[in-house]
Amino acid sequence: MNDVKPERDWFPLDNAAKIFPPITGRRKTTVFRISATLKKPVVYESIREALRLTLHRFPYFQVRIRRGFFWYYFDRIPYLPPIERDPEYPCMWDPTRTPGIPLRIRLSHERIALEVAHALTDGMGALEFLKTLMASYLSIEEGLSIPSSPHLLSPFSVPHPEEIEDSFARHYQAGVPSSSIPPRAFHVPGHLIPPGRYYITTGLVPSDGLRELARSYHTTVTAFLTALYFLSFYTIIQEGKAKGSKPIIIQIPVNLRRLFPSKTMRNFFLLMFPRIDPRLGEYDFEEILTYVTHFMKMESTKKALAPQIKRNVGGERNPFARFVPVFLKDLVLSRMYEIMGDRRATSSLSNLGVVQVPEEMQPYIERFDFYPPPDPIMKVCAGVVTYGNTVSLSFGRLIHEPMVERVFFRWLTERGLPVSIETNVQEDYRS
């Protein structure tokens, strides 16, 4: 078990986080967003006090990223992370730039947005932080008394030492084989938008309607959405908008806390890589769905994922890697990521699942949204989160052409599911 304690003034990045600082740049910021929309406008003074209380509960998030001689690390800061007016384009800041604070709060009318660098935590860790921030805010602003709940880390509880552990190191098994690397993947064509922009298109659909549609195909919502995402890229190839000379590979994050005992609030996820190959012949939705359903059942198990932990942690423990200066590690890791990273996936689809909060908080919250990190190689990525009867499906893209989300939402509406579209895109680009 990792012996890092929450009150320490510094601590190393976890195993999954080590790749992020070397690959961070103007377009690939490695920053994602989870936001909550309330039913009343947000009060700045109350959210500032709520952030102070929340960071007292999550002291390991009140940090900045520092570049050491051998590795990057976090050290504690005595001040609060920025609370800002929400800009037009989310997630477009470099968390490795001075002062290196990997977390920001952004406000817009009724919305509280948490933007966080992936080096600090994953989607589930960020969601727990945001829920505690919301509980603190509603306690201050609305006078709510929120009792202890399995759906919330109370702002007044004491951090558990295991919340800051590197759970990859804890569950490393030396005897298992290392995992293989996927082949190079198909990527959508398109013209990159100027640096600093990130186009978001969110479709809001009723949860009960989506669940019923998935049930009609005898599958889960997650498998259904993944199959539809595959179909969207395949349709683009079939319509002649791209050449299908490589397999379509979708990157699916797996929350390892469901498989391995862990309380960590840091990164603890691995990736699955289901794929279809258009060169093998034609596919319809049912065929893709059958494949995805069986793949996810087979590959989201301890036995299937342990080899990835072995490969990642084993590389970190290599004596040569441990004692190479960080500037050389940056060159090696960024090159390795070019070879083994995003070029091996067409896109990513991250589903945070159903957000659960204490009953006392529910009347004050309208919905949650989840924006994936921008990626100039994959160009288009998707994030999904559900709250109440609203499923938020957000596509983030770095190209002008909205071809993927257009196919995706058109398919849903053609089957009778109402979709309400929101976007920050001002241009009218017809692909």
Automatic annotation (TrEMBL):
It comes from Winmispira thermophila (strain ATCC 700085 / DSM 6578 / Z-1203). PANTHER family: ALCOHOL O-ACETYLTRANSFERASE 1-RELATED. This is Alcohol acetyltransferase. InterPro entries: Alcohol_O-acetyltransferase (IPR052058).
